[in-house]
Amino acid sequence: MSSTARARPLRVAAAQLGPIGRHESRAAVLRRLVALVEAAAAGGAALVVLPELALTSFFPRWVIDDPAEFEGFFEDAVPGPGTQPLFDAARRLGIGVHIGYAERAVIDGAVHHFNSSVLVDRSGEVIGRYRKVHLPGDREPRAGAAFQHLEKRCFETGDGGFRAWPALGGIVGMLICNDRRWPEAWRVLGLQGVELVLVGYNTPLHNPEAPGHDAHVKAQHRLVMQAGAYQNATWAVAVAKGGTEEGQALLADTLIVAPSGEIVAESRTEGDELVLADCDLELTGTYKSTIFDFAAHREPRAYGLIVERRGAGPPLQD
Amino acid sequence: MSSTARARPLRVAAAQLGPIGRHESRAAVLRRLVALVEAAAAGGAALVVLPELALTSFFPRWVIDDPAEFEGFFEDAVPGPGTQPLFDAARRLGIGVHIGYAERAVIDGAVHHFNSSVLVDRSGEVIGRYRKVHLPGDREPRAGAAFQHLEKRCFETGDGGFRAWPALGGIVGMLICNDRRWPEAWRVLGLQGVELVLVGYNTPLHNPEAPGHDAHVKAQHRLVMQAGAYQNATWAVAVAKGGTEEGQALLADTLIVAPSGEIVAESRTEGDELVLADCDLELTGTYKSTIFDFAAHREPRAYGLIVERRGAGPPLQD
Question: How distant is the Cα of A263 from the closest Cα of chain B, in angstroms?
Answer without folding.
Answer: 11
